[in-house]
Amino acid sequence: MAKKVPEIPSASMADIAFMLLIFFLVTTTMDVDSGLERRLPPPADPNQVQTDIQINERNIFVVLVNAQDQLLVENEWLAVKDLRARAMEFLDNPKNLATLPEKEVKEIPFFGPTEIVKNGVISLRNDFGTTYGMYLNVQNELVAAVNDLRDAKAMQKWSKKFKDLNEAQQDAIKMIYPQKISEAEPKKVGVKKL
Amino acid sequence: MSKFRKDASKELPPLSTASLPDIVFMLLCFFMVTTTMREVTLKVKIKKPEATELTKLTKKTLVSFIYIGQPTLQYQKTFGTEPQIQLNDQFASTSDIQGFITAERAARDESEIPLLITSIKADESTRMKIIQEVKEELRKAQALHINYSARKKVALQ
């Protein structure tokens, strides 16, 4: 009678599987890509006649970035770290100054009639020679200014952060602080001659 | 009463570990399936700029990437050191972007097309000229929802 073949011990199977598992756990990178979300304006219609829209100067917040990555805000030199505060002041106009955008009273859900900035627009214009890092930095500060204002308003009303509010509440706050950042065609100076 | 005593005298059987490998293999399979290997090999050097106001790109299948940066050393001979655009696995020029977007759209379900996001991954030292041209092409292709890829800035306080 033939000898019985001894069973292969399967006790170590678990260890082998664990080793493989750990390998995959370590090598898996669950990096979620993140970035600054923006929307581009739709392409310009060539048939459209350019009409000059009269926008009062006080309603535009002009941000210029030149090829040396220097910042000019409302005809003043400014460091990037001060940009957020300036943009927030512009978008909110808390003291109703004549140099900052006009305000009007509007009916807003949840808030009732509220005095909001009527049509303040941030106009960002960069140069062809501006570095991308600087450009993104400026964009980031401008978006941050809007987000900070929204957060502050949400905190004041509901003691919650803006992103934790429900959709209707978010829409109400968006009406008070819309994100109006317009990007002008860049100037074609400051590029290295190839 | 004796009933209970009889039970107590029984020894606790050892926990069976026979199913352990199966459980672990199940976990293993899960990780193998969910692991997404990087599909494209980067041919350009990218050091992402830092930002604070980030939104996450949660649905990776709905994102198409445009890489912009200086070619890596091995490609510098043929492509020079000026920033280049990389689409999928090859270098491209700005005129290829519209075709790229069309191809990306064709690969998706029709209902997903409006949800597509184009992520621009560019090096921080790139000059805006090339990015402006890319943006102009994206506007023409009606791919208006974009995302400037950035790293989370660590707060200094």
What does this structure look like?
The complex is a heterodimer of chains A (about 190) and B (about 160). By secondary structure, chain A is an alpha/beta fold. Chain A has 4 helices and 8 strands. Chain B has about 160 residues and is an alpha/beta fold. Chain B contains 5 helices and 9 strands. In chain B, strands 1, 4, 5, 6, 7 and 8 form a 6-stranded mixed β-sheet that branches. Chain B starts with a helix and ends in a 5-residue tail after the last strand. The interface between A and B is large, with 44 and 53 residues. Strand 1 of chain A pairs antiparallel with strand 8 of chain B, so a sheet runs across the interface.
Which bin fits the share of residues in helices of chain A? 25-40%
| Order of neighbouring strands in the sheet with most strands of chain A | 4-3-2-7-8
Shape of chain A: elongated
Q: Give the second-level CATH assignment, the architecture of the largest domain in chain B.
A: 2-Layer Sandwich
Whole-number mean pLDDT of chain B? 84
Order of helices and strands of chain B: HHEEEEHEEHEHEE
The greatest inter-chain interface is formed by: A-B, 44 and 53 residues
As for the number of domains of chain B, it is: 2
Helix run count of chain B? 5
- Whole-angstrom Rg of chain A: 27 Å
Main beta sheet of chain B: strand number and arrangement?
A: 6 strands, mixed
Largest sheet of chain A: 5 strands, mixed
How many beta-strand runs of chain A? 8
Q: How big a fraction of the residues of chain A is strand?
A: 15-25%
Low-pLDDT ranges of chain B: none
Radius of gyration of chain B: 26 Å
Question: Quick one: CATH class of the largest domain in chain B?
Answer: Alpha Beta
In which range does the helix fraction of chain B lie?
25-40%
